[in-house]
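We emphasize that the prediction below concerns an isolated chain of 187 residues; any contacts that depend on oligomerization or on bound cofactors are therefore not represented. The input was used exactly as deposited, without trimming of termini.
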Amino acid sequence: MGIGIREDIAAARRRDPAARGSVEIALLYPGLHAIWAHRVNNRLWRRGFRFIARAGSQLVRAITGIEIHPGATIGRRFFIDHGSGVVIGETAEVGDDVMLYHGVTLGGTSLSKGKRHPTLGDRVAVGAGAKVLGPVTIGADSAVGANAVVIRDAPANSLLLGVPAKVRARQTGDDVRKVLQAPEYQI
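Result of the prediction step, given as a token string:
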């Protein structure tokens, strides 16, 4: 098993309290399958095999319900919990140790050819149903609440909550999992 695969499985074990073992994670977690397939599709994309890469990403979408454009840049130990309905656009950039819940969109807001999708810094967590739209940057160690709609940049150590999302500084000791699930942060 490659180092990246082992890291991904370990990341899933750390972030998912329901994880029972490495074999279960490797065989039954669609978020990991989508990430592993993305790595192959991204290599094809970068080498100019664009049609094959897009076809591969669409096949993975049909199987997992997770759409990651092969042009997207994804960091190490990326974890998608539950996964269904996740969409990651072509020019999205995702840092290391990022976690997304189901229904998250990292989408564009323009038809321009340039950078049109979000950039997430390292250790960012994005709650279920949240939409991060346009070429915005979310700084490292930030959390986006469930169903938030982010359309503006946020500095490191931020909480982004509401529609449109308002930014507040994270407090020391904020438990990201609780923040992402607390009713007062949802819509």
